[in-house]
Amino acid sequence: MNLHLVTDRSLTLGRPLLDIIRAAVAGGTSLVQLREKDCSTREFVELGQAVASLLQGYKIPLIINDRVDVALAIGAQGVHIGQSDMPYPQARAILGSQAIIGLSVETPEQALAANLFDVDYLGLSPVFATTTKMDLPPQLGLQGVQEIRAVSRHQLIAIGGINSDNAENVITAGAHGLAVVSAICAASDPKNAAMELCKKIAVAKAKAVAA
């Protein structure tokens, strides 16, 4: 799960979300997180069903941001939850052992506490300043990524202000993968944007192995 696409329909420049997702997957995106903060449950379910149908053909996992009920309703592969969402133990009990569950952490202390849970990955947020999500805590920066890597036993997926210019540095700092919103959703060529990010991830990991 090297590259996650986190969706935001407000950033697609008027293009259909399914077209953005299709292009991102063609470019190497390995997981899609459907994030919808302002739509009704019915609309969320209908959109989720459409995305799930699209991704099924690619065998790419779909996870739902926050909403365990929506994930269940559409048969998504899992959820991504934050510190104020449904607690991990309850989400795991509802979704089962095979579900992909990611948990957002904003500090090394939260990452250390998450060692008690069998989450599939931790979302480190925000690494850099971003305008795609409001009311965020202070940015972690590369040092924050390093500090969390030092205390965590989990796969670390970094998000927040990440693009092709800084992607390699974030992996080098200790992230195992990246999650992006505007870097793909708002890109003029989402497929090429995803390919470039995957290339940066691969280069950083190759350097780490060679070091």
UniProtKB/TrEMBL annotation:
Domain Thiamine phosphate synthase/TenI residue range list: 3-184
Cofactor(s) this protein cannot do without: Mg(2+)
GO molecular function, one term: magnesium ion binding
Top enzyme class: transferase
GO biological process, one term: thiamine biosynthetic process
Annotated family: Belongs to the thiamine-phosphate synthase family.
Name recorded for this polypeptide: Thiamine-phosphate synthase
Organism, as annotated: Desulfuromusa kysingii
Gene name of the encoded protein: thiE
